[in-house]
Amino acid sequence: MSDRGLALARSKMQAEGVAPAAIETFTRFYHLLESGETGLVREADVEPLTDLPRHADLEVSDADAQAALARTAIIKLNGGLGTSMGMDRAKSLLTVRDDAPGAAGDGPGGTGSLTFLDVIVRQVRAARRATGARLPLVLMNSFRTRDDTLAALARYDDLAVDGLPVDFLQNREPKLRADTLEPVEWPADPSLEWCPPGHGDLYPALHASGVVRALLDAGFRYASVSNSDNLGAAPDGAIAAWFAASGAPYAAEMCLKTPADVKGGQLVVRRSDGRIVQRETAQTHPDDVGVSLDPTVHRYFHTNNLWFDLEALAAELDRTGGVLELPLIRNEKTVDPTDASSPAVVQIESAMGAAVAVFEGATAIEVGRERFLPVKTTNDLLLMRSDVYELTDDYRLVAQVDAPLVKLSKTYKQIAAFDERFAAGAPSLRSASSLTVEGDWTFGARVRAEGDAALSDAGEPATVPDGATVTADGVQP
After folding, report:
1. Contact residues for 47 (Cβ-Cβ < 8 A; gap 6+)
2. Whose C-alpha in 226, 317, 356, 432 is 20 to 30 A from the C-alpha of 386?
3. Could you write out the three-class secondary structure of 343-380?
């Protein structure tokens, strides 16, 4: 049964022109899946990661920071569609702010709303102006995000550097029926028969595209890699200089865990050989979830901000043909994510951070929360759009207060419904320690939230009037 499934999957990928390295990576993972491999990393087999150097303690001269950035490229993972928020295009094209600084020389759209992509581009351009670094920006797009993203980037005619590509394409693979491990068929929407292979696909995609060699040939030695929905991962000369001086082939940025951090990968030390390895949420055994989330045991979580020595990366990609030996992540879903009654499928995935176990001498650094500002839900998006953050002239989002905990009802889960209910803008959250909204409320203009602000389900759609204040007791005039 499984031999047939693999043969069908390989043929399907070959017919669609999927890169050979991606097909071989899929084949390796398929055999692991077939053998019953779960990819779980048990707590008994690892030890916590401790005593990392701190970004806040780095003492780096301006000259060293500029020299390191001069040899650094910025790579952003831009394959996400934001399907959990009901989107069908690149999440990075979602509006995140309405207060563009409009700095001199900033180009098109100096005022008005900004998407994630706009902010990323302007962070890079600001760093270029400040340091003189060429700082190329290269996006890893998926087959569903590429066209819209490149159209949006066309506004920035000064973005390309030295003829380097502004993007390369993430691979795709067939979803497998959970009962047969054969490629699923879904005539109602054949595009749903495919899925991205997780951000571990960075490596075969880089190999197939030749981007690493192109960067090396253009004089770049290091790469900073992060998700496009994390605007905290702006170019940073101090970290670049630290990484260059470390001589490490690979480094990960880690944050101290808080009680709110119930998801996300972490680095742990494998007892058998002392190597640092990554454990994703999906690789955590149910019996180990509690201890894995305990900040007194595992102090750090993974930001998915990575640094690479491009020479070491190129050597490993050449040695393996782009097929790095990363752990399998088995992700079970339905073929149509919006239809729970559609056939169950298995998506074979891997995490790019798992390469920490591949590179001998890999290291990590503790960074502040300002380097980790991901937007995974509309709860996160409301915070990003609110006055909790200010957008600086170099396009960094800086928290003005401790971010309150936002919990919106399922009414707000889809971006269209969310935007409709906050059409007048996000409420002021600077005086709030939390905001909990139950039911269906539409917010007027100039609304403020204070303390543990809460709105109960009114049983029908309701409105928070213009200028009102929301407190623990509900709406106040």
Report:
1. 268, 269, 271
2. 226
3. CEEEEEECCHHHHHHCCCCCEEEECCHHHCCECCCHHH
Amino acid symbol at 273: D
What residue type is 477 in one-letter code?
P
Alpha-carbon Rg for the chain, nearest whole angstrom, is 23
Which regions of the chain carry the CATH code 2.160.10.10? 378-476
Q: What is the pLDDT of residues 29-65, one digit of tens each?
A: 999 998 887 678 899 999 999 889 999 999 999 999 9
CB 277 within 8 A of CB 267: yes
CB atoms within 10 A of CB 423: 11
User: CA 289, 78, 29 angle in degrees (round to 5)?
Assistant: 55
CA-closest candidate to residue 232, choices 59, 407, 413, 392? 392
DSSP per residue over 92-158, as a string? GGSEEES-----TT--S--SS-EEHHHHHHHHHHHHHHHH-----EEEEE-TTTHHHHHHHHTT-TT
Q: What are phi and psi of 227, to 5 degrees?
A: -80, 145
Task: For residue range 409-457, list pLDDT tens digits in order.
Answer: 999 999 999 999 999 999 999 999 999 999 999 999 999 999 999 999 9
How far apart CA 463 and CA 427 sit, in angstroms, is 13
Kindly give the interhelix angle for 20-34 and 202-209, rounded to the nearest 10 degrees.
160
Q: Start-end ranges of CATH 3.90.550.10 in the chain?
A: 2-371
Domain 378-476 listed as CATH 3.20.20.140: no
Architecture of domain 2-371: Alpha-Beta Complex (3.90)
